Amino acid sequence: MTMHSNSRPHFLRRPLLIAAAASLTLALAACDFGGGGSDGPSQPTDNTPVSLSERITQLEASGQLPRLDRSTDLLGSDANANGVRDDIDTWIAGRALSAQRTKALTRAAKTAQAALTVNPADSSAVRAVARQGARDINCISTVFAGDTASNNGFELHKAIEKYTFNTKPRVLAYITFNKALSGAVLSLPSGDTCDE
Questions:
Q1: Which residues form the signal peptide (predicted)?
Q2: Dist CA 132 CA 144 (whole Å)
């Protein structure tokens, strides 16, 4: 079966929607509104407005938001050199999933990272990253088949994308990747794509 550019998986066919969502994420997560310099978030009083950066710090401290790398470095920290940013590795590990599911999500995170650094002028390299992304989605749908919303593989994959492309340089690199892919024809994966 062949898929055309207008029938790509969600992460390939909606770059503008992703860019808009990522821009919102940037507005919420990557901006510094001058709240730095204190030892921690200030506790709001009834009359004290809380800055966006302070609120994000509070949500991260409470565990409601993951602590994400918001550095200007395109790839961020990867201490174990597995191709996945450390904060994304930590987030995946925090899901307390089976080894098979953890591996599937980690592969998807590695592919998302690859989209940030692939040479957009190398069309076969761009297509290879896109093909791997399709294989990752197929694998995730297989290992998470029939799960509830709290363990929904599709939602976890979307979260990985959202967390990976969380700064302006990362969003711009991802948009460049999608532009380079525009018009490409890819084959849909079939069978077990979790075997690599």
A1: 1-29
A2: 18
> Which pLDDT score is estimated for 23?
45
Please state the domain count of the chain. Answer: 1
Dihedral Cα 122, 166, 25, 88, nearest 10 deg: 120
Residue 84 lies in a domain: yes
User: Is the predicted pLDDT of residue 26 greater than 70, yes or no?
Assistant: no
Task: For the beta carbon of residue 155, count every other beta carbon within 10 angstroms.
Answer: 13
**Structural domain harbouring 173:** 2-30+70-187
- What distance in Å separates the CA atoms of residue 97 and residue 65, rounded to the nearest whole number? 19
Alpha carbons 54 and 45: distance in angstroms, whole number: 13
Both tokens assigned to 152: 């929904």
pLDDT at 146: 78
